[in-house]
Amino acid sequence: EFLLGSRNQDAEKIKAMLRDALELLGFETELEKLLICAELYGIGSLEERSTLETYRTMLKQPKDISLASVEGLLSEIRRALGGLKSIHLAYFREIADAKEVVDFILSIKAFQQQVDFLTGDLQGYQFGQDLLNSLLSVRQLLMPFMDFLQSDKTFTLVDVCARLNE
Prior knowledge:
- With 166 residues, the chain is mainly α.
- 78% of the residues lie in helices and 0% in strands.
- Helix 1 (2-41) runs parallel beside helix 3 and helix 1 packs parallel to helix 4 (90-97).
């Protein structure tokens, strides 16, 4: 029974290390879009972006990363990203790919008044109503990010990521 308990613990440790290693590999593919997004929107300092670029470069050579160092490296990267997991970085990929949409939504003055006007004006025009509803859905998803863009304050990447992690 002692040997079985030890084997189970070893198996759990190995599973945890492999899970962390897969998470780390997920960051490699998504960090590039985060960096593009940060550059497009001027978020974060040059130092933060440089640190993330260093991590991305390291992750491009996974054979150089030992399994023993995976947990520590993963912890460092998550700390640099306000606790986000690699799957959450897909948000930044979409924002980077939709810059025109973000700019369009940000350009509309008195957004809610415009929506109210269009809602009344589009009665009976299904395509127009569907398009407006889609715009409202996209705006809702982008609002946490757009709040940063509309603020007069300067935010770090950690600030932005931590807020999106809430």
